[in-house]
Amino acid sequence: MGTKYKGTKEEITALDAAIKLVRAAETLTSKLSFNLIKYKITLSQFGILDAVYHLGPLTQKSLGKKISKSGGNITHVVDNLEKRNLVKRQRGKSDRRNFEIHLTKKGEKLIEKVLPNQVSIIKTEMGLISEEESEILQRLCKKIGTKK
Asked: Which class in CATH covers the domain with range 44-145?
């Protein structure tokens, strides 16, 4: 279904594409979030656990950039993960003003349990498009997402 907006051809094309992109992202996000309910974590918490698992300890500021969340939101999410003993804050070695977020053993075990299920959902949903289409989609999303 296209938009009923009466604008230029370029505006309507851009709007239709944006609507479809947002709907697709929201559908995938909803399925991923629903899967996390049984682990009692949110998508933001998963994002932090996943980032630290794959990249190693990160500052809260770096985490915010990585998962596109504000500083206040990251602080709140990290607080909740820390209360559950899934992460711990440690003062940075090079800059003691910053705290680095580290996974605890419990956090590492949880992400290793959750990640395969998330990947399975992503594989199922993304399996609807070909490998070539996936590569094109990745390039396009990167182009849109990194525009300054």
From this structure: mainly alpha
Helix axes 60-67, 43-55, angle to 10 degrees: 110
- The two beta strands, 99-103 and 87-91, are antiparallel
**3-state helix/strand/coil string of 19-49:** HHHHHHHHHHHHHHHHHHHHHCCCHHHHHHH
- The pLDDT value recorded for residue 146 is 78
pTM (predicted TM-score):
0.85
| DSSP class per residue in 109-123 | HHHHHHHHHHHHHHH
How far apart are the C-alpha atoms of 116 and 53, rounded to whole Å?
A: 13
Where on the phi/psi map is residue 40: left (φ > 0), alpha (ψ -120 to 50), or beta? left
Is 70 exceeded by the pLDDT of residue 24?
A: yes
Residue 49: CB atoms within 10 A of its CB come to 25
pLDDT per residue as tens digits for the range 67-116: 888 777 888 999 999 999 999 998 877 776 778 999 999 999 999 999 99
Q: Which residue has the tokens 């990251």?
A: 74
Q: Are 51 and 61 in contact (CB under 8 A)?
A: no
